[in-house]
From TrEMBL:
It comes from Ruegeria meonggei. One of its GO terms (molecular function) is oxidoreductase activity. Its EC number is 1.7.-.-. SUPFAM superfamilies: NAD(P)-binding Rossmann-fold domains. Residues 1-241 form the NmrA-like domain. This is NAD(P)H azoreductase. The keyword Zinc does not apply. Keywords: Alkaloid metabolism, Oxidoreductase. Belongs to the fgaFS/easG family. Transmembrane segments: none annotated. It comes from the Bacteria. Pathway: Alkaloid biosynthesis; ergot alkaloid biosynthesis. InterPro entries: Ergot_Alk_Oxidoreductase (IPR051604), Ergot_alkaloid_biosynthesis (IPR019901), NAD(P)-bd_dom_sf (IPR036291), NmrA-like (IPR008030).
């Protein structure tokens, strides 16, 4: 499988890390991107079927990252998935989410499609990314407003570093066999946003607060930052589920798949301290 792995979303949050993890294993994957620049880049766009044939040619395993601008993940991906099967792709490793059950919304529908159609498949269902604090929507409010805005109340989450997710994906892409199953991925502990705020406060040496919003207020905030209304409301609803305890769990799947203990929130904050300065 050394030369026949395609990483879709190959320059994104997890995809770029999957590429690096594979390279560390001596594998040079094809990097699927809408704007290819490097030698191993392959032009790939879920919305452009003309990119499928060349991108999937000779590929045996693919890392799947769904488009983030729609809640209809299967609708956006199905023609590409069918093209992959037609091209002879055997193994699919899908990035989904811990709250997305098989057959449910978004990547849950892709999960069900893989079970019905893919010869070999794995679905990674990580908890919320630690990178949400350092690179995504929480970063600027933490840095500029000393605040984290959520609708999670006291709900706890097994926050996970994207590097640990990528390590799991890389392990499954190169494994001799896979079990055709899904994996809930978490960090080593389930914590609330209050604890995250306290950790940032201690490490940064200045007060960071957890500001509690309603689900509707959070949806409006997401929209004000540019997210489409349907997607903004879906994300906000996930916070409501967290408040009800949906993410309050810890698994050992990262260690089972990679042999390593996942990073803690303290380790993550210490390693990324410059993001909030």
């Amino acid at each position: 499988m050394t030369n026949t792995i395609l990483v879709t979303g190959g320059t994104g949050k997890t995809g770029s890390r999957v590429v690096e993890q594979l390279k560390a294993k001596g594998v040079s994957p094809h990097v699927g991107t809408r704007s290819p620049k490097g030698e191993n880049d392959a032009r790939f766009d879920w919305k452009d079927p003309s990119t499928f044939d060349a991108a999937f040619e000779g590929v045996r395993a693919v890392y799947l990252v769904a488009p983030t601008d729609t809640v209809d993940s299967l609708g956006a991906m199905q023609s590409g998935l069918e093209a992959a099967l037609a091209a002879g792709v055997q193994r699919f490793v899908l990035l989904s989410g811990s709250s997305l059950e098989e057959g449910g919304p978004m990547m849950g529908a892709v999960h069900a499609w893989l079970r019905s159609n893919a010869p070999e498949w794995s679905v990674l269902r990580p908890a919320w990314f630690m990178q949400n604090f350092s690179e995504l929507h929480h970063r600027n409010p933490i840095r500029d407003e000393a605040a984290i805005y959520t609708a999670t109340d006291d709900g706890r989450i097994g926050f996970i570093d994207a590097g640990d997710i990528a390590a799991c994906a890389a392990a499954l892409l190169v494994a001799g066999t896979v079990e055709n199953t899904d994996y809930i991925l978490t960090g080593p502990e389930a914590i609330s946003y209050d604890v995250v705020a306290e950790t940032l406060t201690y490490q940064l040496g200045r007060q960071i607060s957890h500001d509690r919003l309603t689900v509707d207020e959070l949806a409006e905030r997401h929209q004000s930052l540019g997210l489409p209304e349907e997607y903004a409301r879906a994300l906000a609803a996930m916070d409501g589920a967290i408040a009800a305890g949906a993410e309050d769990r810890v698994t050992d799947n990262v260690q089972k798949l990679t042999g390593k203990v996942p990073a803690s929130i303290v380790e993550f904050v210490q390693q990324n301290i410059e993001a909030w300065k």
